[in-house]
Amino acid sequence: MLRLRTTYMFTIAGSVMALLVNRVQVALILFDESDPLYTRDPSFTPTEPDPEGRQDTFSFKNLSNFIALEPTPRPPVESLVNGPNITGDVAWLMHLAVVGFAKCGTTAMQAYFDRHPQISMLDGEHCSIRDEGYAASNLVKKLAEELPRGNYIRGAKCPSYLEIPQALHTLSTLFPNARFVVGVRHPVL
Questions:
Q1: CA 141 – CA 28 distance, rounded (Å)
Q2: pTM to 2 decimal places
Q3: Which branch of life, at top level (predicted)?
Q4: Are the beta carbons of 162 and 19 closer than 8 angstroms?
Q5: 71 vs 67, 79, 85, 88, 169, CA distance in Å?
Q6: 66 Cβ partners below 8 Å, 6+ apart?
Q7: Tens of pLDDT, residues 13-25
Q8: Are 113 and 182 in contact (CB under 8 A)?
Q9: For residue 32, with 0-12 CB atoms within 10 Å meaning exposed, 13-18 middle and 19 or more buried, which class applies?
């Protein structure tokens, strides 16, 4: 039974990685306060180019290029969700999804992101997308109602989304600019 489950998990991991590579831009987001590109001030602009040429380093100097800004005026939840159906453009509601498996640090990663003044994460786990037939309207409602107004990077955490390949597809369809932080761990350790 253990062998079957391990094989099953590797199959899931393989299909998830294929989905991530083909459908979603995967980003490793590092916050290092000694990095000259890192700043808590969104108007910060470096005086000279990065000497190491790190184009992919995440900084907040140009926040509007990374996120879909919140529309003004902010649309009411009723215009975005009608029962189980998503009826409006919700791409601006989520920019960051912390996914992984149990015991791989997703809660710690959520806490690290939530400490940043320009990132707002939903509290707890929000794993409402279960299969192809289940609507993501609950997640959209939570994002719209519980996260603050303004141009924040918004995020949610669900460790079990890696076990549900349809969930990642649904997230990447609803939130096309979302970055996925994937937590994995060694299966024996």
A1: 27
A2: 0.62
A3: Eukaryota
A4: no
A5: 12, 13, 20, 12, 24
A6: 58, 95, 153, 177
A7: 444 443 333 333 3
A8: no
A9: exposed
The amino acid at 35: D
Contact 99, 158 (CB under 8 A): yes
Q: What is the residue type of 32?
A: D
pLDDT of residue 20: 39
What is the distance between the alpha carbons of residues 129 and 137, in angstroms, rounded to a whole number? 9
Place of tokens 């400490």: 115
Joined together, the tokens standing for residue 46 give 């470096």
Q: Token pair of 171, please?
A: 């997230």
Q: For residue 115, count other CB atoms closer than 10 A to its CB.
A: 10
Distance CA 104, CA 183 (A): 6
Measure the N-to-C terminal CA separation of the chain; round to a whole number of Å. 19
Question: Sign of the C-alpha dihedral, residues 61, 67, 73, 78?
Answer: negative
